[in-house]
Amino acid sequence: MEFPPNQGRDQEEVNERVAEAIEENEIVLFMKGTELMPQCGYSRKALGLINHHRDEYETVDVLESLDEYRQALSDRSGWETIPQTFVDGEFVGGSDILEELEERGELADTLDGSNQS
Question: How many distinct structural domains can be found in the chain?
């Protein structure tokens, strides 16, 4: 099975998809690959860290238009690498940041952003 990158979504369409995913989901992970088939170690690590604390969240496979997703996400977060995690519309970070939060015992609270009062 092949997953050729950059199948030709235009930048405006990808920008809209990114905005909608962030606005419509409490937690969204933009990653290379899918939940069942992560296509890079960093995406796999981010997925595992989130799965440890949350059952429900959205993932978006950026490989269909990698350059366009990278640009759209960079515009929103100022971060160029993928994966990227957003909670309640706010950029949290990539797998390295999630790992740091986990080591400090803060990841569960971060992922429960909207449930805090």
Answer: 1
